[in-house]
Structures are given as C-alpha cells and as structure tokens.
Write a structure and sequence with these properties.
Length: 342
C-alpha cells in the first residue's frame, strides 16, 4: 500500500468513529466461506433439498464451534484454528494500540465490529487476550441480551491517585445472530448459552420434522436470499441493522470492510444509502485484486467518492485480517500527545 494511503488512513483513524464490517472471509481457514452454501440454498427446489444444504451448513460452520469450546478439535482442525487465531490476535492487538495512542479526548475509545458471522471466535480470542469487549449481554450468572448494552463505555480508575481513563472496548455486533444466543420462553428474551448446550449435535442425522424443530432453536439468519425478510421481520435483527445504519450516519464515521462480499442486499443498501447521505463518512473496502472491478461496480464508487477500495500488492493474495494488520495497522503513525514538540 502506498505511503499516501497510509497517511490518509492515519488521519482518518485519528479523528473518526471507527466501524468494521467483517464477513466469513476473516475466519478462514478454520471456517469455510458461505458462497457455495448460499448458492445451494437459494437454488434448492424443495424442502428436502434445502434441508440437506442446511445440514451441510450446520456441520461445516456450526459444529466446529462446539468442538472449540469442548477442546475436541482434530489435529487438522487445531492447525487451522490456530492459524485463524493468530490472524485475529494480531488484528485486535493492533487496533487496541491504535485506540490507546489516539490523543482525541472527544472520541470514544470504542470500535464497532459489525459481522454477519455467527461463530464464537471473536469473543473467545478477545477474552483470551483479556481485551474488553461487549457482545450485548449483561449479567454473570444469567446474562440477558439487549441492544442498549452496546452503548456502554468502560473506565478504569487507578489504585492510588484516582486517575480515570477510558478503556478500549470492542463492540461485537452480530447482525445475523449468534450461536451463543438462546431463546428463553419463560422471560421471552435472549439469554447466553455458555457451552452452546441448546444446539443438538445429532441434527445432521435427524429426519425432516425433527431436524426442523431442533434447527429452529438456533437463533441465526440462514445464508440465503430470504434472510432479508427474516432480518426485517425479526425485532432483534432489525434493531441491529438500525444500529449499523445509525453508526454510519454519525459525523466523521469510518467503515472498514474486510472479508465481506457485499452480496447481502440489505447490508449493501444501508451502506450505500449512508455513503450518499453522509458526506463525512469514509468507507474503505478491502478485497483481492481479482474482485476489485466487480466490487467497484457493486458499490457504485464512481458516484460515491467517499468509498475507496484497497487491494493487496500481490495479484494472487486475498485481503485477510492478517493482510490488513500488516499493511495498514502496523504502519499507521498516530502521534501521542507527549511525543509532540513545541
């Protein structure tokens, strides 16, 4: 990436409300991308064929999360998981350093991580790094989910001098739901599932009726075209989309898109609407060189000068979290207040 781009990004991050839109590509190689599964579900001719593809989705994307929590990964899965974790960790550490260096006292030290992913990787890795994060739940023994919880800030008071400073916090906002979400009939609320115990691991072997009943307990939007209707009709999902929209409408907002194809119609429309209506919004889309032209057409960059596309230097390279960390975050130069010369 050119030095001029790095300088531009340094200035944007210094003065912006930072948001990320993260797709299935960031969990590679541990979890597969949804391209084929989404296409197969959309082309299914009947419910039996659709169920076959959902079982494939369940086996490939959902079950590995349970094995991570139970520490029962195979050797091959463990290698892929460790590679994915390494990419996540360097990304989170780089962002935390950027937030700590940022000298603005007006801007909150929060970063919004909007994602359509339903896996538990981000939460597990942030917790392992002992970095503060907010997944929308409040409580210890019986955590309850609420959109309002994403608006909380965290402050640290020093032990001896009562010096107060804001702690960097990552808001993990799962637009399409999460495997940790469990519906509680008694309270009519979403509660936290610590061990994903509400997910029946034997679902792939179930017959049609039993599979449907068990699958409905998993509060996620399926990777198919009808997800737009599901997300609009469901209160929680529509509120999360509204939160995404409102964050992009803020003055001096910045959105970084990584591992996301923009094939989700509702998310693409919200993003484009914000780009057109908010001239202070900056959108940086990270994708491979091979998909740059198609992405540019999809996001109408000729009509939206506040949208830029970044690609890796190598034609065959994909723009992963690791690529973003190495080519952008580690090169960003944010001047600390005590570094300034007068």
């Amino acid at each position: 990436m050119e030095d001029s781009n790095i300088q531009e990004l340094s200035e944007v991050i210094q003065s912006s409300n930072i948001n990320f839109l993260l797709g299935a590509g960031i969990s590679l190689p541990f979890l597969p991308v949804l391209g084929n599964i989404e296409r197969d579900l959309n082309s299914a001719e009947n419910e039996i064929e659709r169920e076959t593809h959902l079982k494939k989705y369940f086996t490939g994307v959902m079950l590995p999360n349970i094995r991570v929590i139970n520490n029962t990964l195979s050797a091959d899965e463990a290698d892929k998981y460790n590679e994915t974790c390494k990419s996540y960790k360097s990304f989170f550490k780089g962002l935390t350093e950027v937030l700590l260096k940022r000298k603005s006292t007006i801007l909150s030290k929060q970063i919004n991580l909007f994602t359509t992913n339903i896996d538990v990787l981000m939460e597990l890795i942030l917790e392992d790094l002992q970095i503060e994060y907010n997944d929308g739940f409040c409580g210890k023994f019986n955590p309850l989910f609420s959109i309002a919880n994403f608006k909380k800030s965290t402050f640290q008071r020093s032990l001896h001098y009562d010096h107060i400073s804001e702690t960097p916090v990552f808001n993990v906002i799962k637009i399409h739901g999460s495997l940790t979400w469990k519906y509680d009939e008694e309270t009519d609320k979403i509660i936290f599932s610590h061990a994903l115990e509400h997910i029946d691991q034997s679902l792939p072997g179930k017959t049609e009726g039993d599979f449907s009943q068990g699958y409905k307990k998993i509060l996620v939007i399926n990777p198919e075209q009808t997800k737009h209707l599901e997300s609009v009709l469901n209160l929680y999902y529509s509120e999360l989309l509204r939160l995404y929209s409102s964050e992009l409408e803020k003055e001096n907002a910045a959105l970084f898109v990584v591992g996301f194809s923009m094939e989700d119609k509702h998310i693409k429309e919200i993003t484009l609407r914000a780009a057109k209506s908010n001239p202070t919004l900056r959108i940086f889309i990270c994708c491979s060189q091979a998909s740059k032209i198609a992405m540019g057409a999809k996001m109408e960059i000729e009509q939206n000068p506040n949208i830029q596309i970044f690609t890796p230097d190598k034609p065959e390279e994909k723009f992963t979290l690791g690529c973003l960390t190495e080519t952008v975050l580690k090169k960003i130069n944010i001047e600390k207040p005590h570094d300034r010369k007068y």
